[in-house]
Amino acid sequence: MTTPRPASTEILRIAVAGLGTVGAGAVKLLAANRAVIEARAGRPLAIVAVSARTEGRDRGLDLAGSRFVGDPAALADEHAVDVVVEALGGAEGPALALAEATLGAGKGFVTANKALIAHHGLALAERAEAANAPLAFEAAVAGGVPVVKALREGAAANAIYRVIGILNGTSNHILSAMEASGADFADALTEAQSAGIAEADPAFDIDGVDAAHKLAILAAIAFGARIDFAGVAASGIREVRAADIAQARALGFVIRLVGVADTEGGALLQRVRPCLVPLGHPLAHVTGATNAVVAEGNFAGRLLFQGEGAGAGPTASAIVADLIDIARGRCARPFGVPPAALAAMVRADPGDRRGRDYIRFTVADRPGVLAEITAAMRDAGVSIESLIQRGRAAEDGGEVLVAMVTHEGPERCVTQALALLAGSPNLTAAPLVLPLLEG
Amino acid sequence: MTTPRPASTEILRIAVAGLGTVGAGAVKLLAANRAVIEARAGRPLAIVAVSARTEGRDRGLDLAGSRFVGDPAALADEHAVDVVVEALGGAEGPALALAEATLGAGKGFVTANKALIAHHGLALAERAEAANAPLAFEAAVAGGVPVVKALREGAAANAIYRVIGILNGTSNHILSAMEASGADFADALTEAQSAGIAEADPAFDIDGVDAAHKLAILAAIAFGARIDFAGVAASGIREVRAADIAQARALGFVIRLVGVADTEGGALLQRVRPCLVPLGHPLAHVTGATNAVVAEGNFAGRLLFQGEGAGAGPTASAIVADLIDIARGRCARPFGVPPAALAAMVRADPGDRRGRDYIRFTVADRPGVLAEITAAMRDAGVSIESLIQRGRAAEDGGEVLVAMVTHEGPERCVTQALALLAGSPNLTAAPLVLPLLEG
Q: Which of A157, A214, B38, B326 is most buried, judged by most C-beta within 10 A?
């Protein structure tokens, strides 16, 4: 039997590349919780080298025992380093070069960089396998929530058939704020930017790209599949209006930006979209800058993992958990199975999927509009469960909104109906389709 | 660097003691998910021996490749066994004997037995350490939710200062049902018994003992403390009435049986009590036979883990996750640190704790009752935030109920106030005190 190894006095020698929010957070955590970390790691952890753009800047960090290295890529070549923590960011460039060099040198690589893993996770896992070096990225998904470990190890006995998550805290904050205050998207975004929750260029968050990175990583782990970030269809929350949120609420739903990955019929479907979440679903109660992941396994049933999805503290918590695992020699394969055993799953045709949709049209206030819309639905085979027309109201910017909920049917029919309506002078903007999250 | 080990063809040889719901569930899972389990374990897992009360009974299990052993204790001595899964139940007797013998023989021991671990976890961890043998009990807490691993490894970088959980599915089902239907406790219990959710003798569940077992285990892991089940003060849900649930709801709370363990002031406080949970708290939305655990760490913030807390499938999921870890050689120490490093924490004096309480009196319908109660509160230094007297109503069984919410203050004052009122002919039953869960 292989068993817990006795405590060692051998130091785990760590290099940290990048001393921004993430890197500095990890340095602070290692100092603040040294006793508990070393008790759980069974050996001392020490930061022996750091790299940052400017050496002298006061970051409130005690880096007395560590060498400063100007070029982060050089950290991989430092002899007295066991593991590199990458906190540079970016899917390519220095982060990727450092990952490749570190693993190539047979050293451990720990990162919070979801873009790097979403784009290059498979190649890096292959490199780690070849070099027999640990690769860990708990911090890349859902901040301090140990969902990578929970899916990869905690739920390892299950065939997991679906993963659903609220994976972007900024978007969830904005939607929650819209829900609470009745504000429209633009105002909620501005407020989130003032509060430091949304970035000056918020596209990555509000257009679903960040959530798509995380979803692709979770799907690879949950399904034992080769990571397929390019296969994630992502749309964001820019088009969601206060009126949609109010309408959803009246129907018993809240609107959340949800990533869904499933393997129905043996094909992989990965999508990030704003969805109507029924109030009885655990994700309906996730408010603010929180992340939450639901995984459905064939024996465990529905599991929920929730917590702070970003920020220095939660991200550092995940990075250092990975370091403790490495210190203990308790390393799982990054995606749970050897890279060669990851399945190359076929992408599913979303048109085949059956479901219900909320569809909102903004229309001209003239006779015949409803007739045109309902005729298109009929001709495409979309059955309407309920239809609400709202008058020209000030809060809708003087527009007339028509919202409907469809009966369950193939998605391709809704796509066809909207194609029939494309270019109609009766529609004053592109319709918004929000799927209903079932179960 | 210690790194993931290559796939092995060496079989992990498993013995299963007990073929009731838990043992049979594990056998079924290993057969149903064989491919995914072996891919994640990196080697085959095989059940080579089983033990049960009766050999011949048809349990719908394929046990062709395994020896039947009449005496479960003999499984520990089987030569060709690497790990024993204990599914006998009970804190003492055969389960304890099997645990001691298995670990003593240097073999792995996996169990779902929360009573066994709550009572003997420390001694068994010491035995495991001495024999260099794995001891694992993910299934002992919160069924299929991998919360033992999440706290012990996923949150290992944190000083965890509080763990809060809904740890008994039966009690949560009954309280949820009372909430949904307005039924009183006795009716909801009878219904839960008919539905197979509550046992014929429900005391273990509804009196908080089962939740106390789980809380003591979680506290030991979270705080790195020697397990102290005897230090858990547990009360159950028998005294909760429909009127309390309605009153709580009117105040913006739901009632849940909550286990709370914290280390405020360096002393350990562990309690299982029905509490008023504010609607904004994640535990307020946990309904039915679900378990949920909130852990608060100094870097990760508030983490929530939720899922099915019992049943054959979830329990088997956790047992087999432990087996996969053992197969991989990925064994943590059972409580995160060596047993000798677990702190012997002093028990906190609950009287020192400050908080707010809901207090409900059932009183005689005569003048002066309110004056007596409020005088006792004043004399004990309890400040009343709100007070509601309900008339003699049919749904209250013709009794008069007086409910109040206190301002924040030391618990000892409430205890004193109730002592002043003890024996008063104005009180027709013992008062019910339900703390408000804050934050």
A: A157
Q: Per the CB < 8 Å rule, is B325 touching A153? A: yes
- Nearest Cα of chain A lies from the Cα of B347 at a distance, in angstroms, of 21
B396/B189 Cα distance (integer angstroms): 18
Chain A CA closest to residue B299? A313
d(CA B26, CA B314): 10
Residue B15 to residue B98: CA distance in whole angstroms: 11
CA A215, CA A257: separation in Å to the nearest integer?
Answer: 12
CB contact under 8 A, A33 and B145: no
In contact, B276 and B437? CB cutoff 8 Å = yes
B147 Cα distance to chain centroid: 11
Task: Give the DSSP letter of residue B143.
Answer: T
Give the span between the Cα atoms of B269 and A390, in whole angstroms: 55
Ordered mean pLDDT values, 10 residues apiece, chain A (439 residues): 54 96 96 96 96 83 88 90 96 95 97 98 97 97 97 97 97 97 96 94 97 98 98 97 94 97 96 96 93 98 96 97 95 92 96 95 90 96 88 63 95 97 93 92
CB-count burial class (<10 Å; 0-12, 13-18, 19+) for A371: exposed
d(CA A214, CA A230): 12
The distance in angstroms from the start CA to the end CA of chain A is 42
The amino acid occupying position B366 is R
CB-based contact B120:B52 (threshold 8 Å): no
**Counts of helices then strands in chain B (DSSP H, E):** 13, 18
- Chain B: closest CA distance from residue A225 (Å): 12
Residues B301, A308: C-beta atoms closer than 8 Å: yes
Are A24 and A93 in contact by the 8 Å Cβ rule? The answer is no
**Nearest Cα to Cα of residue A24 among A289, A312, A226, A279:** A312
The two tokens of residue B304 are: 């929530």
pLDDT digits (tens, 9 = 90+) for B145-180: 999 999 999 999 999 999 999 999 999 999 999 999
Dist CA A165 CA A175 (whole Å)? 15
The B residues from 103 to 132 touching A (CB cutoff 8 Å) are 106-108, 129, 132
Looking at A185-315, which runs of residues are DSSP E strands?
Answer: 232-234, 253-262, 269-278, 290-297, 301-308
User: B307 contacts in A (CB within 8 Å)?
Assistant: 300-304
Q: Measured on CA atoms in the order A137, A139, A142, A148, is the torsion positive or negative?
A: positive
Please tell me which residue of chain A has the smallest CA distance to B302: A307
Query: Is residue B391 packed enough to be buried (19+ CB in 10 Å), middle (13-18) or exposed (0-12)?
Result: exposed
Question: Is B263's Cβ below 8 Å from some Cβ in A?
Answer: no
What's the burial of A278, exposed, middle or buried (CB within 10 Å: 0-12/13-18/19+)?
Answer: middle
What residues of chain B, 231 to 250, have a C-beta less than 8 Å from chain A? Answer: none
What tokens does A299 get?
Answer: 């024996």
Contact yes or no for B144 and A326 at CB 8 A: no
Give the separation between CA A75 and CA B313, rounded to whole angstroms. Answer: 47
| Chain B CB contacts of A314 below 8 Å | 299-301
SS3 B361: strand
Q: Please report the residues numbered 370 through 409 in chain B whose beta carbons come closer than 8 angstroms to any beta carbon of chain A.
A: none
Q: What DSSP state is assigned to residue B343?
A: B
Q: List alpha helices for A91-113, DSSP H.
A: 93-104
Q: Which of A335, A338, A319 is nearest to A153 (CA)?
A: A335
List A residues 159-218 in contact with B (Cβ-Cβ < 8 A). Answer: 159
Q: What is the ipTM score, two decimals?
A: 0.95
pTM for the predicted model, two decimal places = 0.95
Whether the CB of B320 is below 8 Å from some CB of chain A: the reply is yes
- The verdict on whether B107 is a catalytic residue reads no
Residues with Cβ within 8 Å of residue B424, at least 6 apart in sequence: B372
Check residues B9 and A37 and name the one with the higher pLDDT: A37
